[in-house]
Specification:
Number of helices: 13
Shape: globular
Number of strands: 17
Radius of gyration: 23 Å
Strand order of the largest sheet: 4-3-2-1-5-6
Distance between the termini: 17 Å
Structural class: alpha+beta
């Protein structure tokens, strides 16, 4: 689970262009991390930890980006789906789906860059004139690029592209495309029929290829190693912000790009995304780390909860229940089973232990897991009512936490992928509250 307010979506290795769109935000985040107060009495230990983190060796040297051939195969797959459904084209904006199908790694702004994927033929990309060289550089598939100048309309370029390709619709709209694009196209092509693109995009993106699984495995290995490093460098008085900056420094040195770093100490751990109250590390502190990185765009998401010092009986009991809940989700997973049944199995167990019922607190207020890939959260979801059948190649988080408001919470999270034989985790599960990593 990641915290939306902490997430700045950027990519490492082959994703530099998208980072331009968040340069100011990431620079500000870097300044905040550099200025994070380590907490009273721990400044030297904090600085030593940062120095040691920067000396770590990368784990990503053998990681490879998705090839042009795989991007071409993805395009062929979605075009075959369009042809069978008699859909004219697919409209994409910068984001995970555009990257998935074309390799185009870009950002969204008021200056429109968008792509039309026709049921047959080359992709058509519309982009500002001064961005054309950079757009062509990042494309991984053959494409026609049409430019527009600052005084011109990108919507007119898209509409003309539909007319020139003799695409009369319907036009499938990827679920994150902004309304202004659809409205602009309607103005240029009155009466154009539009439909949701989920039946086209989701079947492609939900099933991960061996290359995608490999990148997910590397990203998770980086995050787990960063968490292990951070735990070895805890010191009394360390703030949540400082601990987060240690994790991020280790992540970068290990070869990943930090996507989110959530550190919840003490009572803050009782709330899945924390509070605004400052907390520092002390004897008996509950420490909840929820962190993720990306490698060539593919993301990790790992949570670990442990105690700084000696756990008390209540902390031990809650940790053991979550550990069992996480294992139960994996035991329930098998091909053909509705993904929502994993959430049902865990929730039923927690209710028998006196939590809930359902999504009530104290208990598990969020879903048991989510799909993961180019996005930290993507369909399908391990939540009650999701009837999507588990299939080989699907990837998820497994994070059935327990939270007691006013006290503390526990979340253990690992990512896994489905095989014909059963689920396989990218990282080993926590052993015990004393050996969580």
């Amino acid at each position: 689970m990641n915290a939306p307010h902490d997430v700045a979506r950027r990519r490492l290795l082959g994703g530099g262009l998208a980072a331009l769109g968040t340069a100011l935000l990431s620079a500000g985040a870097a300044r905040r991390a550099a200025a994070a107060s380590p907490g009273a009495g721990s400044s030297a230990a904090y600085q030593d930890a940062l120095t040691a983190a920067r000396a770590l060796k990368p784990l990503t040297v053998e990681a490879r980006p998705i090839t042009a051939a795989e991007h071409a195969a993805r395009l062929a797959q979605v075009q075959a789906l369009m042809q069978r459904a008699q859909i004219g084209a697919l409209l994409l904006e910068p984001g995970a789906s555009l990257l998935y199908f074309t390799g185009l790694d870009w950002w969204r702004s008021e200056r429109i860059t968008a792509a039309l994927v026709p049921a047959e033929g080359e992709v058509l990309v519309v982009t500002p004139e001064f961005e054309e060289p950079s757009v062509r550089e990042t494309l991984a598939v053959p494409a026609e690029v049409r430019i527009w100048s600052e005084h011109e309309s990108p919507f007119a370029r898209l509409a003309q592209g539909l007319k020139d390709r003799r695409i009369h619709g319907p036009l499938a709209i990827e679920e994150t495309v902004r309304f202004l694009l659809v409205d602009g196209l309607h103005r240029g092509v009155p009466g154009l029929a539009v439909i949701p693109a989920e039946p086209l995009v989701r079947p492609c993106r939900m099933i991960k290829s061996p290359a995608e699984l490999s990148l997910l495995e590397v990203a998770n290995a980086v995050t787990l190693a960063a968490l292990r490093f951070a735990r070895k460098h805890l010191s009394p008085g360390l703030s949540a912000e400082a601990l987060g900056s240690i994790v991020e420094a280790a992540t970068r040195a290990l070869g990943g790009f930090p996507e989110f770093t959530l550190v919840l100490l003490n009572e803050a751990s009782a709330y899945p995304h924390g509070t605004h109250r400052p907390e520092v590390l002390r004897e008996g502190s509950t420490v909840l780390l929820d962190c993720g990185c990306s490698v060539y765009g593919y993301q990790s998401d790992i949570s670990r909860t442990f105690v700084y010092g000696e756990p008390n009986a209540e902390q031990r009991r809650l940790w053991a229940l979550v550990h069992r809940g996480q294992a139960l989700a994996l035991e329930t997973a098998r091909p053909g089973v509705p993904v929502g049944s994993l959430d049902d199995a865990v929730r039923s167990f927690y209710e028998r232990e006196g939590f809930g019922p359902g999504y009530r607190l104290p208990g598990l207020p969020h879903r048991t897991g989510h799909g993961i890939g180019l996005e930290g959260h993507e369909p399908p979801y391990l939540v009650h009512g999701d009837t999507t059948a588990l299939a080989a190649g699907m990837c998820f988080s497994d994070e059935p936490g327990l939270y007691i408001p006013g006290k503390f919470g526990v979340r253990l999270e690992d990512c896994w992928h489905m095989t014909e034989q059963g689920p396989v985790t990218f990282t080993p599960l926590a052993r015990s509250i004393e050996e969580p990593l």
